[in-house]
Amino acid sequence: TGLTMTLPLYGVFGASGFGREVMPLLRAQLQQVVSSEQLVFIDDAPSTTKLNGYDVLTWAEFLARPASQRSVVLAIANSRIREVLAQRCQAAGVHQLSVQAANVVRMDSITLGEGAVLSPFVSLTSNIRIGCYFHANFYSYVAHDCIIGDFVTFGPRVMCNGNVHIEDHAYIGTGAILKQG
Ligand code: UDP
Q: What is the tens place of the pLDDT at every residue in 57-109?
């Protein structure tokens, strides 16, 4: 009699390069609990309606699709865009997801804010404080006693040694070595 169950909907915001790398991590993280129809890309300027088998929705379409709850991971490397989109999500009651690869190493006493993306082979060692919407791309690490602000972005293979402080919105490029202290 037309009884349909409404399920949670999960969006990867950004249907471009980084988004396509984050979707498989989100899928792996949720594979026990969701079907692929509950996973979508969201993009404000979609160039296609299907990407790697997933629907690409505009923001309006994402909000309009029946769902018991809506969650998003911001998969856009530009931190200023992440900040604007985080506000948009909050205003619409859309939850923030953090996504991390299965092989990420996390040691002791780590504080990590909401909306983080930790790519494969990332390590966070001990006694680290990291703000919201942190992105750490492949093979990056953060060592002991680092303090990292909000909306910080690490490209691939960033080596952040101990006792480094990084301010909000910093972008650390591929292969950078941040020396101790
Ligand atoms: N984008 C968006 N809303 C914005 C700004 C950007 O949906 O306010 C989308 C944009 O259309 C593009 C993606 O985010 O598809 C950013 O892709 P880009 O290749 O620039 O960056 P990356 O994937 O490397 O983070």
A: 999 999 999 999 999 999 999 999 999 999 999 999 999 999 999 999 999 99
Helix (H) or strand (E) segment spanning residue 85: helix 79-91
Looking at the CA of residue 43, tell me the nearest atom of ligand 1. 7
Ligand 1 and 115: CB distance under 6 A: no
Which long-range CB contacts under 8 A does 103-110 form with residues at least 24 apart? none
CA–CA separation, 147 and 132 (whole Å): 12
Ligand 1 pocket, residue 80 CB under 6 Å: no
CA nearest 101: which of 117, 78, 114, 124?
117
11 lines ligand 1 (CB under 6 A): no
